[in-house]
């Protein structure tokens, strides 16, 4: 009888053990399911926090219950939906404000460019006015030097600058005479034309800047008087501009020039007509 009771007790204990093991297994599965759900909720929370941080970087502490916050969120969603129905879609509003900001930016850039163009136009007008005044001054100075140099030979002349058509007209009256009788350069003799040309070149030198000044065979058709006056004028101009180099080429004899450390004469040997010599050596005459 005791053995039978013991067996019954063992069977009952086994039954209880099996029952509690099944309970334990069910609780473990429930714990795993809750842990997976917790992990999913934590990930969802992190995503929500990240989205909220984009709107408000600083997290706001609140003591309001979640139910109250959910109610407020729902009211805000309804309000947003109502505003979208009245004013349009949010994306369209964002595009509108983006386009408006871009328009304002471009308008400011255009305004700045127009201001720059206005300033540049003003500067160009000032430069054009200065250029016109300089051109007028140089023209008057060239005329003055031309008439002054012609007067050394008793000539009178006229220079007409046509800046619009970019032409220059020169007239010269040899000797004493009425200025109304000024003649075109083509009507002058060879010597008169050569002397007038020298005066014209010297007047151009007076208004231009260059380190070298050269003249070739300027006195070919001049008589002795015109040649002497021309050389005196050129030497006078050269002596006042020692920072420049003057080169004069002439077939005439220059032995009558004054002796000066600033004047150097290089004379080409006479060609030998009987030989075919291609070299042309120079030798110094001073």
Protein described:
The chain is mainly alpha-helical. It has a domain at 127-284: Rossmann fold, CATH 3.40.50.300. The chain is built from 5 helices and 7 strands. The protein has helices spanning 2-55, 66-87, 90-151, 190-205, 224-239; strands at 156-162, 167-173, 183-184, 212-216, 245-249, 266-268, 282-284. The protein has a 3-stranded antiparallel β-sheet with strand order 1-2-3, with helices on one face. The chain has a two-stranded parallel ribbon with strand order 4-5. A two-stranded antiparallel ribbon has the order 6-7. Strand 1 and strand 2 (167-173) form a beta hairpin. The longest helix has 62 residues, at 90-151. The protein is rod-shaped. The chain starts with a helix and ends with a strand. The model has no long low-confidence stretch (mean pLDDT 82). Residues 1-26 are annotated as: Disordered. GO terms for molecular function: ATP binding; damaged DNA binding; single-stranded DNA binding. Its main location: nucleus. It is found in: Chromosome; Nucleus.
